[in-house]
Specification:
mainly alpha; two-stranded antiparallel sheet; 118 residues
Length: 118
């Protein structure tokens, strides 16, 4: 399965909005399959952006988000502005959509900083 940065952003936004700090978060992302959402929760957890529970069984992948981590909040804050996110996506597209998450994060931080005059 390919990584979808728009889906990752949607997951982070919903977790931030819905998390109570305890328990799990029920996501409502209708344009993606449950497997796509679960996979992206897993890789966001693996990357240190989310805390999540692995509820997978022999019947399929099932990762459930609990809360954002500090790096998750930092990344989401950097990409929250739609113009910053658009610039990041344009830059990724220039490179054929094949940039590491670390580079995407650094681009987001760079464009966000430029947006506030830094």
């Amino acid at each position: 399965m390919k990584r979808d940065m728009d889906l990752a952003k949607l997951i982070l936004e919903q977790v931030e909005e819905k998390s109570k700090g305890i328990g799990t978060v029920v996501l409502n992302i209708p344009d993606y399959s449950p497997d796509e959402v679960s996979y992206h929760v897993k890789i966001l957890c693996d990357g240190g952006f989310l805390e999540a529970t692995n509820a997978s069984t022999m019947h399929g992948l099932d990762w459930v988000p609990k809360s954002l981590t500090w790096p998750g909040h930092e990344f989401l804050d950097a990409i929250r502005n739609d113009s910053v996110w658009k610039k990041v996506k344009e830059k990724v597209k220039e490179y054929g959509g094949k940039l590491s998450f670390a580079i995407i994060k650094n681009l987001a931080i760079k464009f966000a900083a430029e947006g506030v005059g830094l």
